[in-house]
Amino acid sequence: MKKYLFILVLFWVTISYGQDIIVMKSGEKQEVIIKEITDTQIKYVDYKDPEGVLFTIDKVLVKEIRFKTGRKMKMEPPEENEWYFADDKINNLTFNFLAFGSNTFAIGYERALAPGQSVFGELKIYGLGLRESEGLRNRSGFGMSISYRLKMFSFLFSSKKYRPEHVLNGLYIAPP
Fold it and tell me: Which of 64, 116, 137, 168 could make an S-S bridge to 151, C-beta 3.0–4.6 Å?
């Protein structure tokens, strides 16, 4: 009798802890069997119907996954994970085409300090450009500007993209 009771308890423990749990950012918990985790999605089936429909959910909506082994996997927002930007070049060389059309040659250098922050310097040579209008004909000289730039908006995600754009991409302001 003890042998059957032991097998029954062991079987019950295996069934009760045989599923993974997806904890959504909304707080909702789903008991599932994880089939696959990709860069952007989690594929799973309902633990009550392991041969049923394969569901897919975007990782951005998930707070954490609790595996049946007891291990937990926390989902980190992409904009806070520095490794999303590991392949991005942090230096940027620019040429100002609008200034060149206004009789000025302007070349700039930008260096990212952190996602959403950079230092930008620009060297200008006045009188070296395409257009010579009446007021700009005799203009000549040098100029230089240095500014600290801040991203105006947080990293926005497209519905088609999981990873944020390049670390230097976006609309910036340069406070005086």
Answer: 116
